[in-house]
Amino acid sequence: MNRYRVYLEAVGLTTRQADALLVGTEAETAWRSLSSRTLSPLPMMGDEKIAKVLEAHKDFSPKRYDATIERLGIRIALRDEEGDIPYPESLRVLSNPPGILFVRGGELPKHSHAVAVVGTRKPTEYARRVLSSLIPELVRREYTILSGGAYGVDTLAHDLAMRSNGRTIAVVGTGVDRAYPPENRGLFEKIIASGGSIVSQFPLGASAKPYHFPIRNELIAALSCMTIVPEAARESGSLITARLALDLGRDVYAVPGDIFRENSTGTNGLLESGEAAAIASVESFLRALDESRAHSTNVEAPASKHQSVDTSDPILMTLSENPETLDRLVEKTGIPLSELHARIAELELDTVIIRTPTGHYAIR
Fold first, then answer.
1. Cβ neighbourhood burial of 334 (10 Å; 0-12, 13-18, 19+)
2. Long-range pairs for 254-259: beta carbons < 8 A, 24 or more residues apart
3. How many CA atoms are closer than 13 Å to the CA of 347, on its beta-carbon side?
4. What's the predicted TM-score (pTM) here?
5. The pLDDT of residue 358 is above 90
6. Sign of the CA dihedral running 25, 26, 27, 30
7. Domains located in the chain, CATH noted
């Protein structure tokens, strides 16, 4: 695998800057000729940033970097060329998909089998009871549980998935060779040992920086077919994840909470605004989920449905074959995401198609 793209981001280039640098240039050539002349035209590249990148480039040892990758068993997915593992297709709908994904541990799950669970760092006993009932059932249905590896709901979700003999993935805002918060180092090692993985788009050695976490949240939303928020305050970062998931056409669920508790203001706000569907009970949610999955896997639609499909509409033609997620519709129809959002909304209003709890669209 050609790792020169990896080295470019390791010395401080962002995804956008590396993309701009590599227009019409091979990564190895760009790496070997890195200079003020090649860096200065790049976006958001001032003199101070150029100096930092060139200093890091001078001190960088590809041999040491590669040795760390091998020692920790890290595999790399590359957006624009073949890597150690396939690049997740669900990330390609992002406006700025990461050029690199570092994976330490087991395999990444299929998008349709990944559920994000995010929320407050100080969950109440109520949230713990909800997740203790919900996560084992999701694991039993072979869903992988994704979260951010932080305190609170994140840690609880990872731990419950492992206790249920399921797989879990921590998407982190640091390099996969670091633990943040440091107290969760043991949790991350357990995740890897249990067959799960630690995932990041940030280079090895990257520390936790405030601006990393909204980027991490977008990755969680994009890798998952749905996002569940059991408990969150109004200013919780988990609401960013929920709204990013909505922007990507994913389903979002929230658990109604005590109206007098600060920890429920965020989740109740998602429900009040209509941004999230309510998990009114674990049983009803699971029943709807099971019905949706049964519908999504039934590719033999009634003959009358196929006969009534408008053959001039690429969306309906695609859905006449199989239910699909939004990112797969973008890929299969070639329709830009913004235009597809508008067209999907029209078809839903006309009750021609439905969106299922697993994030698939299907013809009614």
1. exposed
2. 254/228, 254/229, 254/230, 254/278, 254/279, 255/127, 255/130, 255/228, 255/229, 255/230, 255/231, 255/279, 256/280, 257/126, 257/231, 258/126
3. 22
4. 0.81
5. no
6. negative
7. 1-71 (no CATH), 111-280 (3.40.50.450), 299-363 (1.10.10.10)
